[in-house]
Design a protein that fits this description.
By secondary structure, the protein is of the alpha/beta class. It is built from 7 helices and 10 strands. Helix 1 packs parallel to helix 2. 32% of the residues lie in helices and 20% in strands.
Length: 235
Amino acid sequence: MQERRLVRFLDEIKDKAEVIYLLGDMFDFWYEYKQVVPKGYTRFLGKISELTDMGVEVHYFTGNHDIWAYDYLEQECGVILHKKPCTVELHDKTFFLAHGDGLGDPDKKFKFIRGIFHSGICQKMFNLLHPDLGVAFGLAWAKHSRMKRKDGKEPPYMGEDKEYLVLFAKDYLKTHPEIDYFMFGHRHIELDLMLSKQSRLMVLGDWISHFTYAVFDGEHMFMENYVEGEGVSNA
């Protein structure tokens, strides 16, 4: 259901968008073997390919569910792949874009597990698993991760003094005051927060239950909810 809705959204914006940034975790689990990728997602991948064939620039940021994207999305779908946060200039505004995984989170257990997932040695060992086993394991891990949350939901906003992405952005601003917008995914909450007179932080929710996105019209940034049948913002 979510995939079809996302594809319809992308179809509605394909003639309006100058550039599209996908901030990661578009898949429950994504791992690229040398000759094999997980089954499914065909409608989404096909729509992304259509967009890039049309000349729409699509940037994909890997998240904690799709760390293991290598060259398939670039070669087959034409996206520009980002494995780290990046800063871009759009219409005289400076954007810091990232999935958000690992930024400012002090949890040692989380950092240890994240280190394993990012380890080249561990990835080579995982490659030795048959894809049927490897993908099944990855999907089971993703489900287990979701079920650890209370009622299977993301914890609510914790406040400026506890929210890791807010703390990270405030600290980053000390040495990079030129940032106008911090844009993150990862947390599955909707957040629009002014950090200073100039700098604004946005966490974009998700397409599991919120169906939220941000649109920049060259001058202003808006947070929107996609409701089928109502069209998308022309901003």
